[in-house]
Write a structure and sequence with these properties.
Number of strands: 0
Strand content: under 5%
Amino acid sequence: MIDIRKWILAVICPPAAILDREIGTIMLVGLLTALFWVPGVVAALFLLIQQQTQRRQPQV
């Protein structure tokens, strides 16, 4: 199920959308957002899509 709140946060404030990840990932997205907003948004959306696909795949 897509959590629309995280997708909206990924566009508005990318580091806030991935707060459930480890600190290094949050800092990297924060740095990308601080340097220029678009790379931070792309990174956050990529991480959300990656998390979504991992949830769909059955655990072996």
